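Re: the multi-chain job from yesterday

Posting the exact lines I submitted so nobody has to dig through the queue logs.
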Amino acid sequence: MSAVAVWAEVSEGRFKKSTLEALTAARTWADALGLPVWAVVIGKEVPQNTSQVLAEYGADKVIRILHPELAEFIPAAYARAMAAFLAAHKVPYAVLSQTYNGRAMAPMLSVWADGALLSGIVQVPEKESAGFRARRIAYSNKAIEWVYTDHLPLIVTMRANAIIPARAPRPSVSEEDFAFTPSAEDLRARPVGVEKVATDKIPLTEAEIVVSGGRGLKGPENWGIIEELAQVLGAATACSKPVADVGWRPHHEHVGQTGIQISPNLYIAIGISGAIQHLAGVASSKNIVVINNDPEAPFFKVADYGIVADAFEVVPRLIEAIKKYKAEHTH
Amino acid sequence: MKILCCISHVPDTTTRIQFSADGTQLDRTGVTFIVNPYDDFVLARAAELKEKNPSGVHVTVLCVGKNGASSTDNVDSNLRKALALGLDEAVRIDALPVDGYFVANQIAAYAEKQGFDLLFFGKESIDYNGSQVPGMVAALLNLPYISYATSIEIAGQKAVLTREITGGKERIESPLPLVLSAQKGLAEWRIPNVRGIMQAKTKPLHVLPPVEVTPRVQTLRHELPPAKGPFKKIDPDKIEELVQELANKGLI
Ligand SMILES: Cc1cc2nc3c(=O)[nH]c(=O)nc-3n(C[C@H](O)[C@H](O)[C@H](O)COP(=O)(O)OP(=O)(O)OC[C@H]3O[C@@H](n4cnc5c(N)ncnc54)[C@H](O)[C@@H]3O)c2cc1C
Ligand SMILES: Nc1ncnc2c1ncn2[C@@H]1O[C@H](COP(=O)(O)O)[C@@H](O)[C@H]1O
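And the result, structure tokens for all chains:
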């Protein structure tokens, strides 16, 4: 029987937003094809309420591939497990999200499943002649590319924040175990420890709102307004490259061509000029607010909202205005 | 120790991107092509390893590509720039990089017979941003794969690496040979010196024919993103307006 399989990535014992995005994509694609959605959970154990959560977002069946050696993510082992499952059930379609782990695993999966890979697509593949076409972002946000393949199995990875997770509750969900034992070869590159940075903060790659500061802020001692704005918005913080290079901010906050690429719903750029290398990492954000005291700053060219003003004056006022709005609109 | 650095040949970020009338091809006229910026990190790391042990480390730089019509679109000159960092030899597989699967198979077919200990890649090419080639090569050659590596230290036949994960870093141990894709942090970018540039001119650059592989993904066409209209200017004295706009869009 045919289906659309989706890798339900577990991170720190739960399903993150990216997994729900992938599920929503799989549901949309499966509906167009008249197929069920099978959500595949790989690991040592499944998170609590797995079936409820996955069924809520459209899974008809939950497949558990559980083994003690799969406790930690190892791209080869996970890709091998997923490939074995696709082959055993002749599943022609698979969806992953373009997270760090999804990106690591998808190319290996595509080779071992002898499939085609469309990566970083922003909408669900559409039928075209004998195959499928899909849209993706290319040239560091400077172009949209339409790609086509008629090769099956077809494996796709969804770009983060391209799809809004939507509830699509299924009346019933079945569960099944798929037996898989990773080989010693699949386990060669072993994680031996994890170092978390700033666990109280929202990871940049998942944040829906990002507040970002540049050299216009003059020094690390002035980051209080960035932090506070981020806090009132429930946002992650980011920065331009020179800011990380001189050590005002940690390197993992650097966005752009050489840093992290993000596409949040809202990106607020404060004291950042908008150099092309910076835009390469943020230009696909859905809404961009630019605060800069130079009306000629290139960033305004891609802005949705622009404020020509001194950041030190306007950001505290913005913080107050948001606080006021929130106080009036929450009870 | 034998190291392979795979580099791609991409339009400089600062160039304007345009396409042929039917949208299928990049219009290459006037475009300057550079070594993919992430690949500069692996070239720099390979150069560091070579410096520490000049006679014990041999570094090959490889690109699957065809030389373009202009002097700014020349794969060979980018390969020589890489060699100028003190690396040993270059290989160009003479074919257009059609899709990730095609490129990965070319690289795997070449590397299979060479006995490399380390296969170095960038995390993605800034043209198609596919993040496909390194993982595919690892799968084709059945080698351990570490993606988004931010450091690698080698001790005998084993390596210790760090890898970026959501919200942190992971330490990984792996036997050699291995495949890695690099993220910023693997090494500091290097600029070749004059001596390096002179020496690179006479280093071997082999041009090899491609093996036969059928690509699996095809580009139908490109579009430019819809031009953004003028932005809405917010008066700094009426900042509530911005808050209301964002709230209307459900962002607050
Ligand atoms: C190969 C390469 C890769 C690169 N990769 C990246 C990358 O990944 N990410 C990245 O960010 N950069 C990258 N860069 C650097 C990039 O070209 C720019 O130099 C950098 O983005 C500029 O950072 P900035 O905007 O913070 O600083 P600046 O360009 O110095 O801009 C500061 C801005 O702040 C404004 N300002 C000053 N005072 C105030 C105030 N009081 N209130 C409001 N505004 C104020 C100024 O008008 C100005 O526009 C790269 C460069 C190269 C060559
Ligand atoms: N044509 C190519 N020749 C050699 N290496 C390549 C080529 N294309 C991609 N690569 C390598 O694969 C990495 C990831 O590229 P991609 O999968 O295209 O995003 C790059 O950083 C290079 O190291």
